[in-house]
């Protein structure tokens, strides 16, 4: 390619400053709102008013991975529930990635149990969502962000709490709270199963999640050499979702591809032009995944995270990536 690495590095850094980096002010605001409203009030209320207790919180997602772009306006928190000393029995199901959970000697879960298993839908909606709503009704304003209101809604496996500035529609922060169980080194969330291939009592199913494991890997990936991995992935995430690029890949597809990419040995992440080198390298890797129609799940053997895409869409993404890599004009265009 005619464009040299050093000019490309400068273009990428300029793009990052202009479109990608979140301000320290919004990051601090997000952490303050989580502390003052979520931890100190909503979580505290649940602890004080429920027979089901909270063991700990797991902070996951892009904000806590150091991969949030543009604004610190979202946070994801897994609310790990405390179980009896007998623990939780994990029962495999016919649905890939989903299990049933059976609580042993745990009367606190009996109200939310069906056919001997903890009902994910019931626990999430009847218990957790209700308690979050009750907690929000008792919220006390906390400076410096006292002029806000909280709105609760369902969001997949989560109960979403939006913190909105009073007198406006400005959303300062959206927090996904996900009631979860940890069994050994595995985590389970009440993510609804979609599809008709597997019938019968889908509300009882719990989805195995790898969010805590991914967070630990991604949050620390630059800790040893102080390289440019975080900066690179933030840039690519921002580019991919811009209209000029128009690739229908979400954050999870990109994180999965990137976790595969950084596993390669012998990569230099600290040279002056490492950012440009790996920008081109990662886009080329994405193109290969699109061409092969295959992007393996990092933790589940035999699972392809691109399975839901139609062949025509995959071909379009492959061609789009190839055209960007082969044209200096198109490469410059996506970095404007």
Question: Would you give an account of this structure?
Answer:
InterPro entries: Mab-21-like_nuc_Trfase, Mab-21_HhH/H2TH-like, MAB21L/cGLR. This protein has 336 residues and is an alpha+beta fold. The chain has two domains: 23-209, Beta Polymerase, domain 2 (2-Layer Sandwich); 221-334, Poly(a)-polymerase, middle domain. It has ten helices and eleven strands. Strands 1, 2, 3, 4, 7, 8, 9, 10 and 11 form a nine-stranded mixed sheet that branches. Helix 1 (5-20) crosses helix 8. The two termini are 18 Å apart. 31% of the residues are buried. The mean pLDDT is 93.
Order of helices and strands: HHEHEEEEEHEEEEEHHHHHH
- Could you tell me the radius of gyration in angstroms? 22 Å
Number of strands: 11
- Mean pLDDT comes to 93
CATH topology-level fold name of the largest domain: Beta Polymerase, domain 2
**Count of helix runs:** 10
CATH class category of the largest domain? Alpha Beta
Provide the domain count: 2
Helix content: 40-55%
Distance between the termini: 18 Å
Uncertain regions: pLDDT < 50 for 5+ in a row?
Answer: none
How would you characterize the largest beta sheet? Answer: 9 strands, mixed
- Tell me the β content: 15-25%
Structural class: alpha+beta
Outline:
globular
* CATH architecture annotation of the largest domain: 2-Layer Sandwich
In short:
This is Mitochondrial dynamics protein MID51. The chain is built from ten helices and eleven strands.
